[in-house]
Amino acid sequence: MRDVIRDAPAPSRRSLLKYSGALGAAAAVSSSLAACSAGPESTGDTGDAGGANSTLTAVIGYGNDGSWDPTQTASAFCMAANNHIYEGLLDTDPLSREPYAALATAVPGDVDGTSWRFELRPGATFHDGRPVTADDVVFVYDRILDPGTQTLAKGFFASWLKEVRKIDARNVELVLKFPFPDGIARLTLAKIMPKHVFSRPGAWEDAIKGKAIGSGPYRQTAHHPKSNTTFEAYGDYNGPRPAAFKKMNWLTIVDAAPRVAKISGASAGAQIADNIPYANIGQLEKGGLSVQGGSGMNNLFLMFNTGRKPFDDVRVRQALHYAIDRDKMIEVALKGHGKPASSFLNEGNPSYRPAKSVYAYDPDRAKALLAEAGVKGLRIEILAVNVSWIVDCLPTVKASWDAIGVETTLSPQETTAVFTKMDQKQDYQVVAAASNPNQFGLDADLIMRYNYGPRNLWMQYARWADDPVAKALFTDMDRATREPDADRKRAMVQDYIDVVAEQAVLYPVVHNELMTAWNPKRLSGIRAQPYPGINLLQAKWV
Fold first, then answer.
1. Using CA atoms, how far apart are residues 418 and 29, in angstroms rounded to an integer?
2. pLDDT grade, residue 278 (50/70/90)?
3. Is the whole-model pTM more than 0.90?
């Protein structure tokens, strides 16, 4: 899960394996990291004792063993947890993504200029008791903008943010390269970390492994990779969204059946769970749970190795998309909780319009395109991640491709194994995986740059960055980023998305809903997110 902008080199493959932890976020790569525990706190459920002092137990359907470094992580579990531990100058509402003052005292009144000034919240302290200062803010942004440091966050800031200056102990100034109002919502992606902790030798490695010290409403109390992470309310927090739960225990359960079992039945050990399988919705609702979905950018995508024939031919890529019976996939695998992709963006995105190339089910056109490309007897192995809903969708892809004479083999594997092969530049034909850039934000510039760019890791995987069409695309993307007029910028983005759709190098097949379940007799204020993880900053006990 990595972004790249012309001004910012992509993270190295080695660092990618460290900072990506859950495919539900964006086909991210999970890694097994050594335990970084803050103490021997029990991993058992303690949420059924009742009362305000109960521990809230959550079940997360993604691993907690990815990177916890906020400047690098794309892990669904870790990003969700960091939103409770850390603060940005501004943070955003988890659904509307509207910015609100977090560590800063106010959202700038004029976001159209090239200078934004922020005053830090009086009395804000980190979880070790030390005050938050302008030096901490500058420390984090310097790391993000440092051309010699490879971070995921660099791709969200380096194209438009020139520098961050200290004015005095409690005031900072962000200096922009050009007016960029969309950047205001991105400030939540720069979580402020204590310089006195993370400037020490080896501290960033500790952050990757799970060390987390922020200024947010919850502090981390224990971290057990592949098991659970625990939190408690930070008593000295004085910000806008205080903790409602004295303690929280987040369990990582990637397999669907035990995850559902943990939240269902008379002996349920958890009050909330994300990544609910569609087949279990009725069962959970009958058991008294609320189950709601969030629709957004979550998608099954196909990525072709354009360095290998015949996938260097756009007609072949288009043919394989036209061949897929998306309606059948949505009916059988997604139980109706999805829509065929009609653009790279989902239909609810503010910048959405249908792409000029919409891959409606058309096997005859698929056959004609393959014939036009001179392709016969094609055999494909689909290298796929083994996320449960992706695996459910794969038989429809195989049946569709088999039906047009393309002999198809499915090869679902652990996420780590899939992306390690590509990091090692091993050969492959087609990858099927999941992506959801919405956990970073809604603006189309961010979403598209997450996937496309001259030094973007995805484009390195696809071997497409040096294609003349790709180079023209990247130039168009840069022009759109710098366009000051909002309507003109939106049109420019939609135009280059048409190119992305036509080329179909890395392109979604379906956009699907993500389901969250919770016990309404115990919890209120829950809102289902359209991206992985949970946000409990506005939730409370009933």
1. 8
2. very high
3. no
